Structures are given as C-alpha cells and as structure tokens.
C-alpha cells in the first residue's frame, strides 16, 4: 500500500500553531474594526443547498463550486457567504430591525486555477448593511476597510480603493450599445471583470462571441471596453444622462469619503464592475498600489439579491476581504508581526512524589489567569528549562523532595536566572 500523502488537497492549507497565531492576529483586526463600527457577528453553515449558489450561468464562482449529492440532496460548500446571509435575512424578514449591520469571517471554497494569492479555500471577512439604500452605508463600509488596513500598518501609498457604479455603467450602456438588449448587462459585467486577468482584446472577443450570452458587434464590444477604461468620473458622467442618479450618488459618496478623511485612499475607476452578477449599484475593490496581486477586498450594492431568491425587496451593500491576499501584501511590506507562543509559567516536578503538588500549583496559577504548562513525562531539568525558555515562559516552578518537604516551590526567573522560594499554600 502506498503511503498516505501528508499534503492537504492542492490549494488548501493546514494551520500549524504559528500559522494560526497569524490568522488569529489578522482576524482580531477584523473583529476589532467591525465592532468599532457597531456590527454584530453572524455565521452560517459551510454546506448549503447547492441551488442557493447556482443562480446564473457564466459567473466563475458558480463554475468553481465544490458540490456533491448525498441522500438525493444536492449540496455545495459555500464559495462566498453573501447568499447565506441573504437566506438568513429572508428567514426572519419582518422580524429584523433595519438597518442591519452584520459581519462574518467564513471559510469559503472555490475550485480556482491557482495563482499568487488565489487559493481553493480562503477566509473572508464580510461586512454587510441591510435596509439602507443610500451611499451613507457604502461610506461606512469603505471607512471600515481603510481602518483595518491602517491598523495593519498600510496606508494610501500601499492600497487603493477603486470605486465605480454598476448603475452608472448600466445606464450609460443602455443609452447606447445595449439599447435594444438591456438583459445582457449582467453577463457583460461578468466578462468585463475579466479584463485584468485576460486582457482587453480577449474580453472584446468574449463580448462579441456570436454564440455567447452577450454577442455584441465587435465595434460595440470595443466601445464598451473603452468606455470602461475611464478613470475620471467627469469623463464617464459626460456619456451618462444629464440628470443621472448614479452620477449624483457617486459624487455624494466621494464627498462623504472626503469628510471621513479618506480622499487619498479612493479613486474612481469605471473598469471596476465586479465578477458577481448580483451587484446593482456602487461597486468597489481594493488593490495593492503596485497592482501585482488580485484584489485585497471587493464589494458593492446588491439591492435585488433577496428578491431574486424569492424574498422581499431589501436594499443591501457589503464587502468581502480575503485573508490570503492581505497576508501576501503584508509579507511584501515586512509588516507580518513576529508572534511568539504565549506562555507565562512552566511547572516542573522532579519525581512522581511531587506530581500531585505540581498539578495543584499549575491549577492555582491557571485560576489566577496565568498561562501555564505542566511538564509531562520525565525530561531532564536542563531540557525542561531550555524548552520553557524557547516557549517564551517568564518563570519555571521547580518542585523536588526538598521543596515539598518545606512546603514551597522554587521559582526561577528565566530572563535573569534569579531564584526564590514561594509558599505552596493550601
Ligand atoms: P469576491 O470579490 O468574490 O466577493 O471576494 C472578495 C474577496 O475575497 C476578494 O477580494 C479576495 O480578497 C478574496 N478571495 C476571493 N476568492 C479568493 C480565492 N480564491 N483565494 C483567495 N482569496 C479570495 C465576494 O465573495 C462577495 N460575496 C463579497 C460581498 C459581500 N459582497 C457583498 N457582501
């Protein structure tokens, strides 16, 4: 029989203690910022009914679904949590006090083609606001992203948040190239989202593929790609309706973000359309300033998702912020902290006779709030001291027959080497 592979499935990770310390450090930033903004944490099952995710063909996320049938049920691992959150909102529709501010840190599964920062499993910090239609909600969310990045040591020179509006792009295209075929807007966005990955020419080909869902004439497809290369809101506003609500909303959002003191972080960029079909309004993505990595985070407004699942109309906006890309970026910038194991005390018994007293001492210290390792087995004292030192413990407590006889333990300060006796008490 061949030996079992020690590697986890490709694209997935094991978390050894040092990896988990780093993950906890990152998650602590997510928790901290979400709570600072008054958000409550929620979670949902990793496995859902597949139909929750299989909304529309063409989206990569649907093609990448890990799914299986068991006992006649078609189930899938979540590729994102947004549909589950929508399901939860729908289950209590009417009973929830709006606006809702929910956050979550789900592990998400996508059978991706692996590239740097793109994995088959990742954790994703989500913040979503339900029940608030205006850009005030978008501004809060973008401010939360910036606060998290700042806490990690990153600034506007490292990360840019690019903002656009699907409503604006839709409105503009409907005045022109999509006048007669407004229904192809969603698949068009999914294709345009691939420009950074495939290049503009390949996307023009996709858009003009006569057998594809969009099937534009090649000049119209080129026109779409050109329109979406605008980096200046005034430029695209010129092509929109004079009284465009989407333009007004974007201007309001930029003004608001200015008031938050975030003007340096943000840019208008019409090419941000997002790869998920459900977005309806403002969309945004954060990228490393060098443009070397995939998006650090992405989100936007999805006012029609609940209705598309059969629920009432409730406006919603949110973002997902992955763990993998940000850790790549932090490593590049030398901002990954050194996180040693956290241990305060080590308790060492010289022999079996001193074990009960050592266990009692360890428990007393633990109840006092110290992090305590009771040495197991019978290692030599020298080895136990070296291990305690390596683990970062401040003190080692030694219990031999002499100490036990005197009702004390010897405490050695591992930094200074100083020793003193301490009463064992009751
Ligand atoms: P998304 O753009 O698919 O959006 O993912 C959000 C973030 O998750 C990305 O910017 C990236 O940091 C991370 N991410 C996604 N896929 C991978 C992967 N294969 N490997 C590593 N990291 C990845 C959504 O999922 C939306 N549901 C976000 C949202 C919440 N929109 C509204 N609310």
Q: Which features does this protein show?
A:
elongated, 36% helix, 5-stranded mixed β-sheet, binds histidyl-adenosine monophosphate, BirA Bifunctional Protein, domain 2, Rossmann fold, alpha+beta, 426 residues, 20% strand
How would you characterize this protein structure?
The structure is a single chain. By secondary structure, the chain is an alpha+beta fold. The protein folds into two domains: 17-332, Bira Bifunctional Protein, Domain 2 (BirA Bifunctional Protein, domain 2, 2-Layer Sandwich), CATH 3.30.930; 345-423, Rossmann fold (3-Layer(aba) Sandwich). Helix content is 36%, strand content 20%. The strands form three sheets. Strands 1, 5, 6, 7, 8, 9, 10, 11 and 12 form a nine-stranded mixed beta sheet that branches. A five-stranded mixed beta sheet has the order 14-13-15-16-17, sandwiched between helices. The longest helix has 20 residues, at 17-36. The protein is elongated. It starts with 16 loop residues before the first helix and ends with a strand. Histidyl-adenosine monophosphate is lined by residues 80, 82, 110, 112, 117-119, 122, 124, 126, 128, 276, 295-299, 302, 318-322, 324-325.
